[in-house]
Amino acid sequence: MKQSSKWLRAFNVFLSSILALLGYTSCGESSVEYGTPYAKYEIKGKVTDKENKNAVSGARVIVKALNRDLRPLSSYFTDTVYTDKEGNYIYQNEDAMSENYQVVCEDPSNTYQSDSTRIKMEPEGGEGWYQGSDSRTVDFEEDKKKP
Question: Disordered: where is this region (predicted)?
Fold first, then answer.
């Protein structure tokens, strides 16, 4: 029994030494990052009446993240912003899922026709998991609905 105990103790010391050595050598200059690549995106613009160029306040601007096949991701990745008195809107997000977006402009008062466009964000200036940032301007000139 004593022989077995000495052998187990020696084996434990040997394994502990190997594991400690492996752990020490893995702490070199290379670092491991955990997480997901992400970028900061900003989509802004103005919504105006096409006929008289007046600002459209309270317009709903829906930003939908699209996958690589340009199909919408789940509704979880859809955000809505509204225009202010001057017709301006701004959408900002840190996203890890998509670089393609569909921007839809709707008028809750039902005076103007809906309009939409697709954009591709191309972030620059990042390092590591942070891929950088990009800002796009998407203006809408809305046509009034015909009676």
Answer: 108-147
Convert the pLDDT of each residue in 95-109 to its tens digit. Answer: 776 788 999 999 998
- CB 97, CB 77: distance < 8 Å: yes
Residue 61 contacts residue 47 (beta carbons within 8 Å): yes
Domains of the chain listed by start with CATH number: 38-142 (2.60.40.10)
Q: How far are the Cα atoms of 68, 90, 103, 128 from residue 118, in angstroms, in the given order?
A: 12, 16, 6, 28
Q: Is the pLDDT of residue 5 over 60?
A: yes
Question: Residue ranges of the alpha helices (H) in the chain?
Answer: 2-25
Decide if pLDDT at 13 tops 70: yes
- Tokens linked to 40: 């900061």
In one-letter notation, the amino acid at residue 5 is: S
pLDDT at 26 over 80: no
